[in-house]
Specification:
By secondary structure, the protein is of the alpha/beta class. The chain contains ten helices and nine strands.
Length: 271
């Protein structure tokens, strides 16, 4: 019978005898975690799960089951907050703050529909300041309430972080960072149209979105241009037309109102 220890005890041992990383038990399943599964161990929610340490034979943790900190210790809410990518202010943004005169009714309805079934894609597009970022953050917060892991990222900032992994002594490697974003059950990708026109950047975004499309992972995208329009910004090469085509397979909502940033900030402050 395997030994079973706590996550904190395993962390202490790993600090004394470093290993690579914590994975899930055999049979090992590298596929993305789905809604309804613990985002840490992959077990069905409500079923206490385990982790194993990816260590060689002879390591003290080899063959030891480690209690998942989310399932056993109530760590999940804090974990979801930390991985959300939201600032302290954005963590308070809620769809309930939106009132009828904001001009965001259609986007709000689409957001609620996505929250109820967070699979496939949803794309929001409109001019700057029309509330796209607000809606994206609200979706991630609503999913946190439902114990579903979601992450908000700004496309140019994410690419900068990926480039930084090539530097020496980086705290996180390229593959691990890319996989964290690629495999998250729900991804809110802001400012997709603002990336620099480089082959490397376009390749990474294509790999990210193509993977999520093939695995039907929940993805919310914000653009400042109409993905169904004829005029595509020059930073999108020909191969990216496939992504724009896939975007159109799912709901696309225009935010056509005026600048609502001041109103939304006031509503969030009053909440």
């Amino acid at each position: 019978m395997c030994d079973i220890i706590s996550f904190d005890e395993a962390r202490r041992i790993l600090q004394e005898r470093p290993a690579w990383f914590l994975a899930r038990p055999e049979p090992y399943n590298p596929a993305p975690k789905r809604p309804g599964q613990c985002p840490i161990c992959g077990y069905p929610q409500g079923t206490p799960g385990f982790l194993v340490a990816d260590v060689p034979v002879g390591h003290p943790l080899f063959g030891v089951l480690i209690r998942c900190p989310a399932c056993w210790n109530g760590y999940l809410p804090e974990y979801l907050r930390k991985i959300s990518g939201l600032s302290p202010t954005m963590l308070n943004w809620r769809l309930e703050n939106i009132v009828a005169e904001d001009g965001l009714q259609e986007a709000t309805r689409a957001a609620w529909q996505f929250i109820k079934r967070p699979v496939g894609w949803l794309t929001l597009w409109g001019s700057f300041g029309t509330g796209k970022t607000f809606i994206l953050a609200c979706i991630i917060n609503a999913l946190r309430d439902r114990q579903i892991a979601g992450m908000y990222i700004v496309a140019p900032e994410f690419l900068d972080r990926l480039r930084a992994t090539y530097e020496p002594d980086t705290p996180i490697g390229f593959n691990k960072l890319f996989a964290q974003v690629r495999d998250i059950p729900v991804l809110a990708l802001d400012e997709l149209g603002q990336v620099q026109a480089t082959d490397w950047a376009n390749d990474k975004l294509f790999q990210l979105l193509d993977y999520r499309y093939r695995h039907r992972l929940g993805t919310v995208i914000a653009l400042h241009f109409d993905p169904a329009g004829k005029a595509v910004p020059p930073q999108f090469p020909l191969r990216f037309q496939a992504i724009l085509s896939r975007i159109k397979e799912f709901p696309v909502v225009e935010l056509s109102g005026g600048d609502v940033r001041g109103l939304l900030r006031q509503e969030a402050h009053n909440d």
